[in-house]
Design goal:
By secondary structure, the chain is α+β, with helices and mostly antiparallel strands. The protein is about 35% helix and about 20% strand. Strand 5, helix 5 and strand 6 form a beta-alpha-beta unit. The model has no long low-confidence stretch (mean pLDDT about 95).
């Protein structure tokens, strides 16, 4: 991570801290939980640590396993917890520095951990919205990493398609894709989440993870996958058929491509997420498939596979320049099958920029 990027993010965080009238911001990571925000603001990618950020100081508390890693990855002042617990050492620093009002993430910190930290400061304020809002606007480095993750994902999928045959199981394709991603430079697939590989009638399951079901002639197969590269994630969905696609499949394909294209024409800074969703949903409904589109149109993407903003009927988010979002309309027919297409887009004033290969790769269906 470039330390200049870290400095810029710290400056933005400190502006938000001043607006919230807190003089210290505390973030605690245990067993990897909330490690994405720690990485974003400090550069440190360990599984355990705490950050203490004031208007003029920034501390990283961690244990001996990460002494060298933390010093290499982060410009923060390093404090080793030594024989103390992470929360104990964090509380010790808070008491010693005599800050008065702390900001913390109530939706990311367990009750038991907060109770251990609470006596260390006179006052606390829930600042759960700060880091998610900062993480929405991707800088140039983040955009380049997401684009690279998407390139690895697509090229790996394309490579794996050449080995698909009747009789291959969903699990076998999943395992081959994950291996190929790593072989092509990805750290892994998705952090903490499994790919979706759903064939035949199972393709009607929007979140149908891989099973022992073997591919059969006439099957439609949906693959929702991605790659992680230097912490940043891509998220794509592609489809293929084992033999010629039936007429209903071709109709669904055309509906989804039209829905995605119309939705993209609405993607601009200042537009409501629910409006973008409604544009795609109106196309699908007008073509008679509305009741078979059972999820939101898309979501934010970055250090996590699901971030703000959301594109759904209930979304209250407004798109900002620098958001990276998925556009993923789908149609699912119980007992028959389904299909979804998905690509990743950077929101810009002149229109969305595809980070996952553009229209040439956006075909809903390939015949094997």
């Amino acid at each position: 991570m470039n330390f200049e990027n870290i400095a810029a993010r710290l400056a933005r965080l400190r502006t938000r801290m001043a607006e919230e009238h807190v003089d210290i911001f505390v973030l605690v990571v245990t067993e990897n939980y909330n490690c994405e925000s720690m990485e974003y603001i400090s550069g440190f990618r360990g599984s355990s640590g705490s950050l203490l950020i004031s208007c003029d100081e920034a501390f990283l508390v961690t244990d001996g396993r990460y002494a060298l890693q933390a010093a290499t990855q982060s410009p923060f002042t390093l404090i080793m917890q030594e024989r103390n617990t992470l929360q104990g050492k964090t509380a010790e620093v808070l008491v010693r520095k005599k800050w008065s009002r702390g900001g913390f993430e109530a939706d990311r910190l367990s009750v038991s951990l907060f109770r251990e930290l609470e006596p260390s400061l006179p006052r606390w304020k829930d600042c759960s919205s700060i880091l998610p809002s900062l993480r929405r606007r991707k800088d140039d480095l983040e955009v380049s990493l997401i684009r690279r993750a998407a390139d690895i994902a697509y090229s790996s999928y394309d490579e794996v398609l050449g080995r698909v045959r009747e009789g291959m199981t969903e699990k076998e394709l999943n395992a081959l894709l994950e291996f190929t991603l790593r072989n092509n430079g990805a750290e892994e697939g998705w952090k903490g989440s499994r790919f979706i590989v759903a064939s035949g009638e199972r393709s009607a399951l929007p979140h149908g993870t891989a099973t022992e079901r073997a591919f059969r002639k006439g099957d439609m197969v949906t693959v929702d996958f991605g790659a992680t590269y230097e912490g940043y994630i891509s998220d794509l969905t592609r489809n293929f058929s084992m033999g010629p696609l039936p007429g209903q499949g071709r109709e669904i394909e055309s509906v989804l491509l039209e829905a995605a294209e119309k939705a993209l024409s609405a993607v601009r800074p200042g537009v409501e997420g629910k409006l973008v969703d409604s544009v795609a949903r109106d196309v699908i409904t007008s073509r008679g498939w509305g009741k078979h589109f059972s999820h939101g149109l898309g979501h934010g993407l970055g250090l996590e596979v699901h971030e703000a903003p959301r594109l759904s009927p209930s979304s209250k988010d407004i798109l900002h320049e620098g958001d990276v979002v998925t556009i993923e309309p789908g149609i699912y027919v119980e007992g028959w099958g389904g299909m979804r297409i998905e690509d990743d887009y950077l929101v810009m004033p002149d229109g969305p920029v595809c980070l996952s290969g553009g229209k040439g790769r956006n075909s809903a269906m390939i015949t094997i």
